[in-house]
Amino acid sequence: MPFLSDSLSRVKPSPSIAITTLAGELRAAGRDVIGLSAGEPDFDTPDNIKAAAIKAIEEGKTKYTAPDGIIELKRAICDKFQRDNGLSYTPEQVSVGTGGKQILYNALMATLNPGDEVIIPAPYWVSYPDMVRLAGGTPVIVEGQLETGFKITAEQLEQAITPRTKWLIFNSPSNPTGAGYRADELKALTDVLMRHPQVWVMTDDMYEHLVFGDFTFCTPAEIEPGLYERTLTCNGVSKAYAMTGWRIGYAAGPKELIAAMRKVQSQSTSNPCSISQWATVEALEGPQDYIKTSKEAFVRRRDLVVEMLNQIDGVTCPVPDGAFYVYPSIKGLIGRTSPAGTAISDDEAFAKALLAEADVAVVHGAAFGLSPNFRVSYAASDDTLREACRRIQSFCASLS
């Protein structure tokens, strides 16, 4: 009898975490590695949020809380959804978890049965398909191509839906591409969903506040109120408020679903960190100036990276609508050879050679379900990004 669970054979470790870990190990060994693989703002958490956490500690708010969040935070989340998205929820409709990933995982664990299908547009965040598999479901991948701005069409969605479809996981702006769905594009998708009442929508709105230019964020239940009763609207504070290590994600949806997610969480991790919860109350209710300041920096960095990557022969880098990633195509580099003799047969070979020969860590496109591309996180200083792009330019120019 095997010791390990059969379910583990259906999943693999996160490629982005693996590459980030390897880059850290190489730096510790003395290599001058520039890591552009982690999806993490390089800014510090705003001072008012840190002060709220310190105050919570000093006031002894360090005990267990309700399994899925304190009432004060749930009320703050309800206010946020009303203020930013025009969505009305009560605290009974809100779940708070240890990061956005746990919220998504809880929902899938609470709802999926063997044979249930989950539609996932590609490129996708690396964890979506494996979380579906771990919960016993079947991921159905629908590809958005470079030519469509990495977005899927209503026709593609319609064709992917079957009687076994239970969820659509929707992420805009996207990790890894930064592509965002405009209101008319999202309305076309929600029109399809209205024709299929068995399909629920799980939104990942983690990059809601990191949108640029004339792009306006919108979320499915906001665009189509008819989907309100079968939408789980998910968000968190990790990206917008530079709180990745605080581990707070949240979601709102129908009471029955939230209750089922609470049951899963009560028998796994139980409550998120009490101190982080009070810090998140301040993040949502306190001054929002930090968001504007960080957005200005991300726009500048985006433009720098896009310009320098598009100067490379064989690379095409679209301009993203939000988040802090670019997802350039290396179609024109496939088939070449690096100075060390590595054949650039695919994007994984490219990323490995780039790290080995130019000391730049990026994530290969196959990890996100669409090749030949690679993801760059531009959540780094301007000088770091400029040097990293210079190395990438030099590496690509050296290919024969």
Summed up:
This protein has helices spanning 15-28, 47-58, 71-85, 100-111, 127-134, 154-160, 183-194, 220-223, 255-266, 274-285, 289-310, 347-358, 382-398, and strands at 34-35, 94-97, 117-122, 138-143, 165-171, 200-204, 231-236, 249-252, 325-326, 360-361, 363-364, 374-377. It has 400 residues and is an alpha/beta fold. The chain is globular, with a radius of gyration of 21 Å.
Structure description:
There is one protein chain. This protein has 400 residues and is of the alpha/beta class. The protein has 2 domains: 6-44 and 290-398, Aspartate Aminotransferase, domain 1 (Alpha-Beta Complex); 63-285, Aspartate Aminotransferase, domain 2 (3-Layer(aba) Sandwich). It is 40% helix and 12% strand. It has helices at 15-28, 47-58, 71-85, 100-111, 127-134, 154-160, 183-194, 220-223, 255-266, 274-285, 289-310, 347-358, 382-398, and strands at 34-35, 94-97, 117-122, 138-143, 165-171, 200-204, 231-236, 249-252, 325-326, 360-361, 363-364, 374-377. The longest helix has 22 residues, at 289-310. The termini are far apart.
Main traits of this protein?
single chain, 400 residues, alpha/beta, Aspartate Aminotransferase, domain 1, Aspartate Aminotransferase, domain 2, 2 domains, 7-stranded mixed beta sheet, 3-stranded antiparallel beta sheet, 13 helices, 12 strands, globular, Aminotransferase
Shape: globular
Number of helices: 13
Main beta sheet: 7 strands, mixed
Query: How many beta-strand elements?
Result: 12
Family: Belongs to the class-I pyridoxal-phosphate-dependent aminotransferase family.
Subunit structure: Homodimer.
EC number: 2.6.1.-
InterPro entries: Aminotransferase_I/II_large (IPR004839), AspAT/PAT-like (IPR050596), NHTrfase_class1_PyrdxlP-BS (IPR004838), PyrdxlP-dep_Trfase (IPR015424), PyrdxlP-dep_Trfase_major (IPR015421), PyrdxlP-dep_Trfase_small (IPR015422)
